[in-house]
Amino acid sequence: MTIESLSHFPDLQSVSSEQFWGLLHLAARLKDERKRLGANAPVCAGKALAMVFTKPSLRTRVSFEMGMHHLGGTALYLSPAEIGLGTRESAPDVARVLGGYCDGIMARVFEHKHILEMMEWGTVPVINGLSDFSHPCQALADIMTIWEHLGDPSKLTLAYVGDGSNNVATSLMQAAGKVGMKMCVVAPAGYQPDAQVLADSGADVYVSADPDAVAGADVLYTDVWTSMGQESERDVRLALFPPYQVNEDLIARTQNPNVRVLHCLPAHRGEEITDAVADGPASLLFPQAHNRLHAQKAILAHLLGGVALE
Ligand code: CP
Ligand code: NVA
Prior knowledge:
It is built from 12 helices and 9 strands. With 310 residues, the protein is α/β, with parallel strands linked by helices. Strands 7-6-5-8-9 form a 5-stranded parallel sheet, with helices on one face. A 4-stranded parallel sheet has the order 2-1-3-4, sandwiched between helices.
């Protein structure tokens, strides 16, 4: 059965559960194809992806660039200094210009509205490579990792511990709604999920400020306490978040000897996660990072290569 095609990938609210699963199955197929045959079919041959960055990146930049390479296309890195998105040039103008040269735009931005403006004014698919609001590519790779290592996500509970109001937490809640995964967000007051985001996600989410609420979790997930763009709040956050560190004590509080740990990376080791956990037996941090490649190849193969979701 073919599923209705996507035109863009701005966040997961605009993706149906069928489309989300279609992307997961395509990602798994592309990962398997490359493992078995040593290469993927060049479904993006002759296609170019413009990668607009207003913030630093390791995973997003390299996995998108290598993803296009594996699919037979090319990717163009545009640094923060080059474009000056929203300062040197408006997002609508950037999108209209890039659409004449390239077949898709992946953008990492501060303001989510810049993603929406590029979609509105541009002529090629736009992919959100992280905004202050959401990080949908990350959540797709996260669910892929959970599905691979723990099985059916609808039978699992993920406890997200830390800044429950940030982009990664938001996309995880939206993803949880797509696959029926239960979530528990453990965060201090003032850093808990926005009520509208929670309601729109359709996910079964329990919110608490008490770290003991991780009891029964199958997956513990954390992210930096201070996201890019929030650096002026770092001291306040550093004083507030230590009870929410993912360490061996928090793992014990899940009362689950098989609990696995995820982190989108980069990690501030010694802050939101300890070395013992990040490098310990529960950690899936690096398989998770590697799945960014496969998950995004599914997005690229679909949006730029015309591969149907099924
Ligand atoms: N997780 C993630 O998006 O990493 P980068 O910031 O390195 O791209
Ligand atoms: N919440 C983090 C994620 C980095 C991948 C940030 O926005 O900085």
